[in-house]
Amino acid sequence: MQVTRGQISLFLCLLSCASSLGTRYTPDWASLDARPIPEWYDEVKFGIFVHWGVFSVPAFGSEWFWWYWKGAQNPNYIQFMTKNYPPGFSYTDFAPEFHAQFFDPDEMADIFEASGAKYVVLTNKHHEGFTNWGSPYSWNWNSVDNGPHRDLVADLGAAIRKRSLHYGLYNSLYEWFNPIYLSDKQSGFKTRDYVEKKAMPELYELSDLSPDLIWSDGDWEAPDTYWNSTGFLAWLYNDSPVKDVVVTNDRWGLGCYCKHGGYYNCADKFTPGKLPDHKWEKCQSVDTISWGYRRNMKLSELMDLPSIIKDMVYVVALGGNYLLNVGPTSDGMIAPVFEERLRGIGAWLKVNGEAIYATKPWRVQAENATVPVWYTSKSSTVYAIFTSNPMQNSFTLSAPKTSNSTVVTLLGSPEPLKWAPLHSSGLIVLLPDLPFTPADAWTLKLDEVA
């Protein structure tokens, strides 16, 4: 019997569909850890983290304000409250002052897009328990019933997606002062009332909002078995509305960091000394003291543009993603100093972005050349990014192996540069006068090198 081309195509299609349908993940780490991370995440490289909540109202110290005031009873926070608020004022009294009256989702999304970021992660709920959407499991302690009286998650999400950026949601599993959680904690986590009545129902409902990324946190006091993390992730990867695109991190219970989940955070501001063997992300904040907005921040406590670019380049060269945080004010504004930093990053990426987006770590990640250099790559193209001006015309790179087909250019300038090979490997490049950039970073593009 003769088989037609159409029959072959149908058979291959059915085979592909069967294979896709057959990929089911079971609620155990061996199965869940084997899930490939969706490709979009590795390609985008740079994202914006947005810490926003009731903590943005006192805007003092850090987003852990409530804990430092009432949990740790830090004298600085107690003194701040004594000086500025009447006796009997509680943390929940801050919520009605969370007005977000100047919040324009399109304006905020424009700033994020101008930064060159390809994904945005908003705090849906921090450890204070206040949700930035109308959670039915957080009655009167959410942004629809209290404070702004609007769904901040949905409003920002619509603006982000209009610009074809990926949208993720940060979610704290635990809540500092939730009495149901504290009761479970008192039992040594032998009871799971908080998980069954609050944490998991809220997380399932949050997933129905179709986030591209779930950035889990607040997990470390209890094991993953308490949180039912494997059960949730199996559902997320198998049956949720975002099962094919969603990305997760590694904060799913005590002992999971740098070991289980999707990509690895390992720790805040994680800085590995060598190329990790698993996809990872560094979360960093422009304000080096706090993730939430602080009215008492000082310029000396903020990362400047060259520091941010240097940090990003290092992270991408080592195969990571860079998630840079800014905290909006309680009235919904991005502080001008943060906006200036973000637009500065975007200006640099307009010239140098091809050395960042969709790149892979090269066989050599860095070398101390004429000045320190970080490498990224795409196929037979290698990018050499240097984050200080060598202040001389000749520039030596030892790692690349050149050929007769090698072409060297400076990103932002189409003219090929003159170069000469070194004996075994490497080359000397004749640099032009480097164009001024507030980022203090430039990129050599080396085509056809090994």
Please give the alpha-carbon distance between the first and last residues. Answer: 51 Å
Q: Structural class of the helix and strand makeup?
A: alpha/beta
Number of helices: 13
- The helix/strand series, from N terminus to C terminus, equals HHHEHHHEHEHHEHHEEHEHEEEEEEEE
Report the sheet-strand fraction: 15-25%
Low-pLDDT sequence parts: 8-20
Shape: globular
Q: What is the mean pLDDT?
A: 94
Strand line-up across the major sheet: 5-4-3-2-1-7-6
Using the CA coordinates, give the radius of gyration.
Answer: 24 Å
Q: What's the total number of strands?
A: 15
Blueprint of the fold:
Elements: H1 5-21, H2 29-32, H3 39-44, E1 46-50, H4 65-71, H5 75-84, H6 105-114, E2 119-125, H7 152-162, E3 166-172, H8 179-186, H9 193-207, E4 213-217, H10 224-227, H11 229-238, E5 247-248, E6 280-285, H12 305-317, E7 320-326, H13 336-352, E8 366-368, E9 372-378, E10 381-386, E11 394-397, E12 407-410, E13 419-421, E14 427-430, E15 442-447
Parallel strand pairs: 1-2, 1-7, 2-3, 3-4, 4-5, 6-7
Antiparallel strand pairs: 8-9, 9-10, 10-15, 11-14, 12-15, 13-14
Helix pairs in contact: 4-5, 6-7, 6-13
Characterize the structure shown.
The protein has 450 residues and is α/β, with parallel strands linked by helices. The protein contains 13 helices and 15 strands. It has a seven-stranded parallel sheet. A five-stranded antiparallel sheet has the order 8-9-10-15-12, covered by helices on one side. The protein has a three-stranded antiparallel sheet with strand order 11-14-13, with no helix packed on it. Strand 8 (366-368) and strand 9 (372-378) form a beta hairpin. Helix 4 (65-71) packs across helix 5 and helix 6 (105-114) crosses helix 13. It is globular and about 75 Å long. The record marks 283 as: May be important for catalysis. Its EC number is 3.2.1.51. One of its GO terms (biological process) is fucose metabolic process. One of its GO terms (cellular component) is lysosome.
